Amino acid sequence: MGLVQNVVFGLVQGSYIAIAAIGFTMIYGIVNMINFAYGEYLTIGAFVGVLAAGVLPLPVAALVAMVGAGAASIALAKLFFTPINETGPVPMLLTSIGLGLVLRNVIRLGAGRSARYYDTESATYEFAGVPEVPVGSVDLLGNFFVTSRMLVVVGCAVAVFAILHALLTRTDVGIAMRAMSDSEDLARVRGIDTQMIRNSVWVLAGVLAGLAGVLLGIQTNVSVTTGFSQILQILAAAILGGAGSPYGAIAGSYVIGLVVALSTAFLPADMTGLSSAVAFLVLVVVLLVKPSGIAGEEVREA
Amino acid sequence: MSVADRIRDGDGTLAAVAGVAAVVLALLFAVSPFTVGLPGELSVFVEVGVLFGLYVILVLGLDLQYGHTGLVNFGHVVFFAVGAYTAAILAAQDSFAGTSLGYPWPLALVAGVLVAAVVGAVVGATSLRLRDDFLAIATLATAEIFHTVTVNFSGTFGGSTGIFGVPQPVAAVAGDFGKTMLATLVLFLGLAALTYAIVTRLTTAPYGRVLRAIRADELVTRSVGKSTFRYKMQAFVYGAALAGFAGGLFALYNGAVAPSFFTIQVTVTVWIGMLLGGASNHRAVIGGLAVIMGLRLFSRFANDLAPVTSGEFASLRLIVVGMILVLVIRYRPAGIWGDAEELGVDS
Amino acid sequence: MTLLDIVDLEKEFGGLLAVDDLSLSVDRGELVGVMGPNGAGKSTLFNCVSGVVEPTDGTVAFDGEDVTGEQPEVLARRGLVRTFQHTRQLGTMTVRENVRLAAPDQAGERTLPALTRSQGMQETERRVVERADELVEAFELDHLADEYASNLSGGQRKLLELARVLMLDPDLLLLDEPFAGVNPTLTNDIADRIRALNDEGMTVVVIEHELETLTALVDRLVVLTQGSVLVDGDPETVLEDERVVEAYLGE
């Protein structure tokens, strides 16, 4: 397989990570917590979507999944996170780890271990006759294909970026979110209802997770680990982009997506399982070399 | 006023004496001609007890790191795993997967401790300057990376099969199963008591005062002349070395290691034990661990009675474990026996 | 003899100069006050000198040696010790432990002596305990000695912080607003203690808003505006200086 094909895979992977990473990083920026249960929000979205798709057309089912995950996100926040908002980042992180464990196993009990699939048609567009330009064992170009599913994923991501940008720059809520992400005290002084903004972020993050979950489900399948298997990549992308920065998270996601896809290309065939470790390795390296990420605040101790 | 007036969580001397006595007793019993028939129902208790001894060593290391120094190590299992794999690879003979070098087991055990300490030093040197929650993520990611590496590099680590043929010194001298299990139980509890003695001695000395000061406010601690980074590194490396020791003991007890023994589940269990008992109080964290492992033991019996499959039951158990973590943090942040004021939490 | 010599110090935060080309020297045995309006760079000056932040430019010399950018713990061990504007007590430790912590050269703070409980370490700890109890008593905190520091009032915290830094027996003591949030009686008490320390030979630099207390206390007053020294001299002269009246008192 040529490098071009891996770049295509990387862009697709980066797209759904980006949608999720935006939600993840906004929770970090505004609620000031690392939400380790966030992967489960994707799983919830994927399951709601696959159930709804049984009776509804897929685009409508996707909307149902987004609403469902958004509702789940705010409900879980009200039950678990809002009451301990003031206790600091570590108790919040530990709570999310516990909550993730609970959600994952509740889903496993409810849905069983077997995977479900979205029943979708997909057209494949092949690009043949591209020269391979081999360098060692890797072909720099080579034949590649793009499926309509991939195009949908990338298209959704681009649409999300555009809507998000409009939200953050044009609406009162979005502007308040940015202000609060910079400085919560200042936002409060200016009369921003910080709890309302937090709630909005929970809903928004849930909606994004729902969409990412459906796209992930379409691309692969829907099972109890659908979201959990992505959480470290989402985390890596968000931190790489500078925790708290939505725009940074988008950039970070494509870096992670491409790194994972390309490492698959360069690793020997029996070690492709390492490609996810590569994402974590990128995360660790980023934390060490430039903890503030591409665009964001310092996470080292003063 | 003497040093003793600050000693709050038990004198280590008693634990040291008890520990040495238990280790000697276990060894004498193992070489003695007595035999023991261990009834099936009892063997479950003994098995969990053996594991408890190892987990006590893990939780004490974590309590040094988090309870005293405030270092959020959420990848504790990686040091346990590194110790176990190092000991297994060095000591195993003719494992059909992975590497087995066949060195004497005492050497392997020491190497397990040392390699875990070195890994701890590397992780610490690179991540201890991060904010608390990012340190948690960096350590968690380290554990995931190691897990993936053990699964993928089957030439060295035996892939998901793991490494077999690790010598089992206690079984070798004791002979039959019941006797081996009992001797191992007493031996491990003795080693756990010795660990308690050492850690307590360290934390009740002025050394522990510096660690607790770092948790309270690192900048103040620096401004009164303490090299806090060095202390953080030491606490982190000591905790890692203890986990490596527990890992080495596990390999030599179990006779085999595999990735499935070293999941995030281990980290979660130890953390819940510590938080449930009350971090920074060594006796409390051991108590908390006993509660959570008692629950595990209870659940083994309950599974036989409950009308669900073992897979479903495992899920139910994890739901309970997760809820305990959530509820402890919310309603009992200082744990059952912890001191809320000492931990700086409201309860 | 110069104990602290600050030359052309500069500190930039995100394009803004918090300290701008500031030079100041303090002789051994002096008691110097530093004042200035909010944002004049007083605390940043202390932070640069005590190693909490690294200056962008310039040098800090302590006791004849260049210590620019040196770590706070190293400076503290050398005898340059500071307190914080927003009192930073170790809330999760008792008053007694707070003070004992600061003891220098305690072998028991290293792993091996801590484990072996060596004779020397025990001996040192006895002296530490004694000295700490003396200080706790001297600062009238003995009835609170086993209380967690988080339960102390604002004034008591200021006292505790003083007791703690005195454990180090500093050559140069930098006090960042020691009277902030303290009632008038306690303010006089703290001022007397600072005066007494200075009389015993300790060099002290005090940042303060509280004008009257400061001018009555110090031998020499330095006024900062916009990150550099405006006026430097004895209190009476400084207070009559037109520029000071304009920049600070005129408000």
Keywords summarizing the entry:
A: 302 residues; two-stranded antiparallel ribbon; 4 strands; globular; C: 251 residues; alpha/beta; six-stranded mixed sheet; 10 helices
Shape of chain A: globular
Task: Please state the average pLDDT score of chain C.
Answer: 87
- Report the CATH C-level class of chain A: Mainly Alpha
The Cα radius of gyration of chain A reads 19 Å
What's the total count of β strands of chain C? 10
Mean pLDDT over the residues of chain A: 86
Give the spatial strand order of the biggest sheet of chain C: 6-7-8-3-9-10
What does this structure look like?
The complex is a heterotrimer of chains A (302), B (347) and C (251). Chain A has helices at residues 3-31, 38-52, 58-81, 89-111, 148-170, 172-182, 184-189, 194-219, 231-240, 246-266, 275-289; strands spanning 124-127, 134-135, 138-139, 144-147. In chain A, strand 2 and strand 3 form a beta hairpin. The longest helix of chain A has 29 residues, at 3-31. By secondary structure, chain A is mainly alpha-helical. Chain A is built from 11 helices and 4 strands. The model of chain A is unreliable at 296-302 (pLDDT under 50). Chain B has helices at 12-31, 40-68, 76-91, 105-127, 132-152, 154-157, 169-174, 177-204, 206-216, 218-223, 228-254, 264-277, 282-305, 310-331, 340-343. Chain B is globular. The two termini of chain B are 32 Å apart. With 347 residues, chain B is mainly α. Mean pLDDT of chain B is 89; it is low at 1-9. Chain C is α/β, with parallel strands linked by helices. Chain C is built from 10 helices and 10 strands. In chain C, the strands form 2 sheets. A 6-stranded mixed beta sheet of chain C has the order 6-7-8-3-9-10, with helices on both faces. In chain C, strands 2-1-4-5 form a 4-stranded antiparallel beta sheet, with helices on one face. The mean pLDDT of chain C is 87. Chains A and B meet through helix 4, helix 9 and helix 11 of A and helix 5, helix 12 and helix 14 of B.
Walk me through the topology.
The complex is a heterotrimer of chains A (302), B (347) and C (251).
Chain A: H1 3-31, H2 38-52, H3 58-81, H4 89-111, E1 124-127, E2 134-135, E3 138-139, E4 144-147, H5 148-170, H6 172-182, H7 184-189, H8 194-219, H9 231-240, H10 246-266, H11 275-289
Antiparallel strand pairs in A: 1-4, 2-3
Chain B: H1 12-31, H2 40-68, H3 76-91, H4 105-127, H5 132-152, H6 154-157, H7 169-174, H8 177-204, H9 206-216, H10 218-223, H11 228-254, H12 264-277, H13 282-305, H14 310-331, H15 340-343
Helix pairs in contact in B: 1-8, 2-8, 2-9, 2-11, 2-12, 2-13, 3-4, 3-5, 3-11, 4-11, 12-13, 12-14, 13-14
Chain C: E1 2-13, E2 16-27, E3 31-35, H1 42-49, E4 57-62, E5 65-66, H2 72-78, E6 80-82, H3 95-101, H4 111-116, H5 119-138, H6 154-166, E7 172-176, H7 184-199, E8 203-207, H8 211-217, E9 220-225, E10 228-233, H9 235-240, H10 242-249
Parallel strand pairs in C: 3-8, 3-9, 6-7, 7-8
Antiparallel strand pairs in C: 1-2, 1-4, 4-5, 9-10
Helix pairs in contact in C: 3-5, 3-6, 5-6
